[in-house]
Design a protein that fits this description.
Elements (H helix, E strand, L loop, with lengths): L7 H9 L2 E6 L2 H4 L12 H4 L2 H4 L2 H6 L1 H16 L5 H9 L5 E6 L5 H5 L4 E3 L2 E8 L5 E2 L20 E5 L8 H12 L3 E5 L11 H7 L3 E6 L4 H5 L2 E4 L2 H17 L11
Parallel strand pairs: 1-2, 1-7, 2-3, 7-8, 8-9
Antiparallel strand pairs: 4-5, 4-6
The protein binds ligand BV8 and zinc ion.
The site of zinc ion (ZN) has 8 residues, from loops.
Length: 261
């Protein structure tokens, strides 16, 4: 049994929810060992986004950018989804529609078993040719030193992620907005909420009538804008929420004491 007080209206809403949107950022994967971007030890603390996560940076120094992503790919290949990812999968048994809208490129939600995942900023496990767009799968054995070239046209291969100044993938973005407009609850988890247009998803959901709850060890722009803020780690708070929801579902007519649950 956890000791954390959970906002009553969150569990009331979740108990009858038809659709829950979980909006995640790098903090969702922090307990798996993936470094965040903007924390003191975050990735950006050694590099500035414009130095690496832009097309200009890539064209200026393809080798540096390619190696930075190859380094992150190596980290991601060695880690596992955490209790937070698994809790969101378990929620799918308690709520008819659970939609993940993630800024993360680490594929951990899908690896954990989430069935509806929209990746607004792409996926580090995919690559494509900057010239002809053909997909490229580097295989470890024959991977050349340096930036791979396209087998069909010789163009530079880049990671299939959205860099600053680039449009988000239209289908993913439209599906995310549709999900936001239909959500009863929006949980934003592990994001500093500074990168747009992704960070507007929770406010789109709230404007359409969802209860917005922000989960983060630190307050930030999203916790100010949310209906409720739960201070804590994704890997602890999400299992708490799902555990309480399971209890409520198993004893539907219990009335919890008036104060926080
Ligand atoms: C766009 C992919 C339209 C690559 C990323 C000038 C020109 C063009 C656009 C702009 C411009 N000026 C501003 C913009 C908009 C720009 C933007 O928002 N900039 C910001 C920085 C001001 N956005 C764009 O460029 C977007 N495109 O606007 O297109 C357009 C096009 C052309 C011209 C005009 C407009 C594209 C943005 C996508 C950038 N790509 N990543 C890669 O990953 O390498 S962004 C990067 O930041 C990641 O995707 C990351 O997910 C995202 C957000 O960061 P967070 O996930 O929130 O991570 P962060 O470290 O910041 O925070 C972690 C949080 O977790 C913290 O709050 C921490 O407290 C918490 N935490 C830590 N541990 C835990 C935890 N929480 C829970 N549990 C824990 N255990
Ligand atoms: Zn090509």
């Amino acid at each position: 049994m956890n000791s954390r007080e959970l906002p009553r209206r969150l569990l009331d809403r979740l108990a009858t929810a038809h659709s829950v949107l979980v909006f995640t950022g790098a903090g969702m994967s922090a307990e798996s060992g993936v470094p965040t971007f903007r924390g003191a030890e975050g990735i950006w603390s050694t590099f500035k986004p414009e130095e690496l996560a832009t097309m200009n940076a890539f064209l200026r120094n393809p080798q540096l950018v390619w190696e930075w992503y190859a380094h992150r790919r190596t980290i991601i290949a060695t880690i596992q989804p955490n209790a937070g990812h698994r809790a969101v999968v378990a929620m799918e048994k308690l709520v008819p529609h659970v939609v993940i809208v993630t800024q993360n490129i680490d594929n951990l939600h899908r690896r954990a078993g989430s069935t509806t995942v929209y990746e607004l900023h792409g996926n580090i496990e995919r690559n494509y040719c900057v010239k002809c767009g053909s997909p490229h799968q580097p295989d470890a054995e024959t991977a050349p030193v340096g930036v791979p070239r396209c087998a069909s046209c010789g163009g530079l291969i880049r990671p299939d992620v959205v860099w600053f100044g680039e449009m988000l993938p239209e289908d993913e973005w439209n599906a995310a907005v549709r999900a936001a407009n239909g959500a009863d609850v929006c949980l934003s988890v592990g994001t500093s909420g500074v990168v747009y247009p992704a960070a507007s998803i929770p406010s789109i959901a709230r404007r359409a009538g969802a209860l917005h709850v922000d989960v983060n060890p630190e307050p930030g722009p999203l916790s100010e804008a949310a209906d409720e803020f739960i201070r804590g780690l994704a890997g602890e708070v999400l299992p708490d929420i799902v555990g309480r929801l399971e209890e409520l579902r198993s004893r539907p007519n219990i009335t919890e004491p008036e104060k926080g649950l």
